[in-house]
Amino acid sequence: MEKITTIQDDKLLNYLDGKLNELEVIQLRKELEASAVLQARLEDLRLVHRTLAHTTLDTPSMAFTNKVMLNLHSQSFPTYLSPKNGLLLLGGIIIAAGMLVVMITAGIFDQVNGPISLDKTLPVSQYFKQSLPTVSINGKLVVKIIVGLNLVLAFFILDRTVLKPFFQKRAGTQL
Predict the structure, then answer these.
(1) Following DSSP, what letter does each residue of 34-68 receive, concatenated?
(2) Is 130 exposed, middle or buried (0-12, 13-18, 19+ CB in 10 A)?
């Protein structure tokens, strides 16, 4: 199947706009006679050209922008998450924290202690001339920090999705 180049497409658009000289028009008509694909493309472009030529765009009134800007703050929407989704997320966080606490008490992370040499973990020789320091890691401490952050996140979600909407509704000032 014959493909139309961007040059041919531009010629067809210029032809419809009346921007071609006589020689270019004659050459384009010869190409159109030889190619059914080019003729079909011309008809498609002619339809679009006619539609755009006879369509007028609506312009908004002079006060449109002012009306929109004034109405932006007329409706307030709740700024909290759905209690149902919040409770599901809260439940998942509590389960994850509980599993981590059980794993800590079982001593699973006691073995994850010791130095980690960054020279062996990264392709350092290509990028650094000096050797990188060794980092000491305590697996139990890292997991305790993760559990703590998990619980802080759980309390934040509890506050935003359950407690705040409940007390706002109770006070009659629900936004």
Answers:
(1) H-HHHHHHHHHHHHHHHHHHH-------TTHHHHH
(2) exposed
Q: Which residue do the tokens 């006619």 mark? A: 50
Q: Which pTM value belongs to this model?
A: 0.38
CA–CA gap between residue 158 and residue 147 (Å, rounded): 16
Q: Structure tokens of 98?
A: 């509980």
Q: What six digits make up the tokens of 104?
A: 């800590």
The confidence score (pLDDT) of residue 122 equals 54
pLDDT beyond 60 at 15: yes
Chain centroid to Cα 115, Å, comes to 39
Distance of alpha carbon 16 from alpha carbon 111, whole angstroms: 78
Percentages (nearest 5) of helix, strand, coil residues in the chain: 70, 5, 25
Count the Cβ atoms, other than its own, within 10 Å of residue 89: 17
SS3 134: strand
The more confident residue out of 17 and 85 is: 17
Give the SS3 label for residue 137.
Answer: strand
CB neighbourhood size of 150 (10 A) = 16
